[in-house]
Write a structure and sequence with these properties.
The complex is a heterodimer of chains A (about 325) and B (about 325). Chain A has about 325 residues and is mostly helical. Helices cover about 70% and strands about 5% of the residues of chain A. Chain A has a single domain, classed as ABC transporter involved in vitamin B12 uptake, BtuC, CATH 1.10.3470. In chain A, the strands form three sheets. A two-stranded antiparallel ribbon of chain A has the order 1-2. Chain A is globular and about 55 Å long. Chain B has about 325 residues and is mostly helical. Chain B has one domain: ABC transporter involved in vitamin B12 uptake, BtuC. Helix content of chain B is about 75%, strand content about 5%. Chain B contains 13 helices and four strands. The longest helix of chain B has 30 residues. The chains are: A mainly alpha (about 325), B mainly alpha (about 325). Chains A and B meet through helix 7 and helix 15 of A and helix 4, helix 5, helix 11 and helix 13 of B.
Chain lengths: ~325, ~325
């Protein structure tokens, strides 16, 4: 818990971005900040953002350390589809929901291990290595579901994807719990330091005694697991697995979330809680577009603009300009 | 430094895989070797193939362009809207989209160079932009009913042996030949290799790297527009969701064709064979009837992996030879 608080203390830019987007949403839809209690749970646009932002938030939790090691994981969307497919097949064939979730997690971990092995073991560039699973992953998911949209009726999973506890949506609570857990693991142990060391300077970190290969492998396994949890939530929410569309384009949202969260796309530094804030900001943007009545496809244009804006701000080419502006002010 | 065997060995591997794929198809379905089926293979691969020509330049230069699928779809949409709604003549529509897409590519290239960002992130944004623009034009499919258009779409030259060369297939073959000449026989092509081999030393040699990056992505944009035109001829319509995920197929074809994703190596012939290998996989699945379509994705992914791993191991072997 302390770690999350510490991470959020330096998150002023992320809060500003989120606040700005929420304010714009408020201008677009007058009732945006209204929160009511319906059927014993909170309802309203803000709650909706927390609920729908959970899958991308989870992906961002996995993606932030990956990017911090100087890598990238393009396969998370496909891994979501695989995990959802595995769970749907097990549950619809009479397996218990616990078995389904466990197998989905195992599948996600295995996908992450495959990525990590290609990158750490064979030394293939991360974006190339994860491209393989991005290409083949949806095929694997279709293979698992035999090309059908697998539906299931399972009360526990329905709660997992669309239920509420203490008034809050369960996906939000899952995201919150895993964020706290991940921050604890990363910041109360040397893990976070190792991850940033590998991303900052791989050679130097190895000379300093960091097992760069093992760190890389574990980071991709974690990303696979996070993608699996996101896939489980999405599949539970619609009570079915759609191999073609589950998690489509989510890898981009996750990368953008990490970038908005202040993680350097060149590697070397990251913050989990800020990446989650970034994911929520993206969801707020998307919800806002829906509320304005613009077609949802408009999202793509806005997202493209957001990526370019973040890239411009992060660009090393613009840093001298920023420094010069800073000097003038001083 | 570069021995002839190293220069050609990935292309040789691709040729072996191609011959094996053709052999397997021909053994199970002898009809594959007939002129008609081979003609269809070229026609069905045309859209992908034209995009692959542009991607080969980008990959040889050490970059990547994820926006090709989006630009293809947008080009097809643009052509459909221009002809059907704005009453443009097909030729003028082709010309406008070629100019538009080339300019867009140049802009992307300029952004990649000046912002110093990884190309795949910036071209991802470009992909979003192109897809979003598709939907801005129309949310549903627009059929093209222009009489000239149908004539072009149905045009085919009958060659001996029942072989029919359609217009889109001819367009693909021409693009590959011209692309091959440009890449392997012109100073600009040599500069593409230089940028891909080592950007810093290319710059030190006096190459204007920024201008090269711009022109390379402009070339990719132009090829994507051509592919989009072929797509509109092939399907007879513009559809905003068309060619979804085709950027991955295009990249896979280039890699299976033997090009190095780290840049500095690639041959147009190899990319052409890479396209045909993918076409043969789809052909096999169609002819078999019992295999499901997802096996295409899985087998292309497996081939992609095999080639990347092979390159990595071969690369290690070559450096060991060189250091000994």
């Amino acid at each position: 818990m302390m770690g999350v608080v510490r991470g959020l203390r330096g998150a002023t830019p992320q809060f500003l971005v989120l606040g700005l987007i929420l304010l714009m949403d408020r201008l677009a839809a007058p009732g945006f900040f209204d929160i009511s209690v319906r059927n014993g749970r909170l309802a309203g646009s803000l709650v909706d953002i927390l609920n729908r932002g959970a899958p991308v938030g989870l992906l961002a939790l996995g993606m932030a350390p990956v990017i911090a090691t100087g890598g990238i994981d393009l396969s998370v969307g496909a891994v979501m589809a695989i995990a959802g497919a595995v769970m749907a097949v097990i549950v619809s064939h009479g397996g218990s929901w616990i078995l389904g979730v466990a197998c989905a997690l195992a599948a996600g971990g295995a996908c992450g291990f495959w990525n990590g092995a290609l990158i750490a073991g064979l030394g293939i560039k991360p974006f190339v290595a994860t491209l393989v699973l991005m290409v083949a992953g949806r095929g694997v998911a279709q293979l698992v579901t035999q090309g059908r949209i697998m539906t299931f009726a399972e009360p526990h999973l329905a709660t997992l994807g669309g239920g509420a506890w203490l008034g809050l949506p369960v996906p939000t609570l899952i995201l919150a719990a895993i964020t706290v857990l991940a921050v604890l693991v990363v910041r109360s142990s040397p893990a976070g330091l190792f991850i940033e060391a590998v991303g900052g300077n791989r050679r130097a970190s190895r000379l300093a005694g960091v097992e760069a290969g093992a760190v890389t492998l574990l980071v991709y396994v974690a990303s696979g697991l996070a993608a699996a949890i996101a896939g489980i939530i999405v599949a539970s929410d619609i009570s079915g697995a759609d191999a073609n569309n589950a998690g489509l384009w989510f890898e981009l949202d996750a990368i953008l979330a990490v970038a908005v969260g202040g993680g350097s796309l060149a590697g070397g530094r990251f913050s989990l809680s800020r990446a989650v804030l970034g994911a929520l900001a993206i969801q707020a943007l998307k919800t806002g577009i829906l509320l304005t009545g613009l077609p949802p496809e408009f999202n793509l244009l806005v997202m493209a603009g957001a990526i370019v804006l973040v890239l411009c701000l992060q660009s090393p080419a613009l840093r001298p300009l920023a420094v010069r502006l800073g000097e003038r002010r001083a | 430094m570069t021995l002839p065997s190293i220069r050609w060995s990935p292309t040789a591997t691709t040729s072996v895989v191609f011959l094996a794929a053709l052999g397997i198809c021909a053994m199970r379905f002898p009809v594959v070797l007939s002129g008609q089926v081979l003609g269809d293979l070229l026609t069905d691969s045309a859209v992908l193939g034209i995009g692959v020509v542009g991607m080969t330049f980008v990959v040889v230069a050490g970059g990547i362009d994820l926006s090709v699928g989006g630009v293809m779809a947008f080009s097809a949409m643009f052509v459909a809207v221009a002809i059907e709604r704005w009453a443009m003549s097909p030729l003028l529509a082709f010309l406008s989209i070629a100019v538009l897409a080339t300019g867009f590519g140049a802009l992307v290239g300029a952004a990649i160079h000046n912002l110093k960002t990884p190309p795949f992130i910036l071209t991802l944004a470009a992909m979003f932009l192109a897809r979003g623009a598709c939907f801005a034009l129309s949310k549903s499919s627009i059929p093209i009913k222009h009489p000239d258009y149908e004539r072009m779409a149905n045009f085919a030259v009958a060659l001996p042996g029942g072989f029919k060369l359609s217009l889109v297939a001819a367009l693909m073959l021409t693009t590959f030949v011209v692309g091959g000449v440009v890449l392997h026989r012109t100073p600009w092509g040599a500069a593409v290799f230089a940028v891909g081999g080592d950007q810093r030393s290319a710059g030190m040699m006096g190459l204007k790297v920024g201008r090269m990056t711009m022109s390379i992505y402009a070339m990719s944009g132009f090829c994507a527009a051509l592919a989009g035109i072929a797509l509109s001829l092939y399907t007879g319509a513009g559809y905003p969701l068309a060619a979804q995920g085709s950027e991955l197929d295009v990249i896979a074809a280039v890699v299976i064709g033997g090009a190095l994703l780290s840049g500095g190596y690639g041959r147009m012939v190899g990319s052409f064979l890479g396209v045909l290998i993918q076409g043969l996989i789809l052909l096999y699945i169609t002819f078999d009837g019992g295999l499901s379509s997802w096996w295409a994705k899985i087998s292309i992914g497996a081939l992609l992996f095999a080639f990347i791993a092979f390159q990595k191991l071969a690369g290690r072997w070559v450096t060991r030879e060189a250091t000994v």
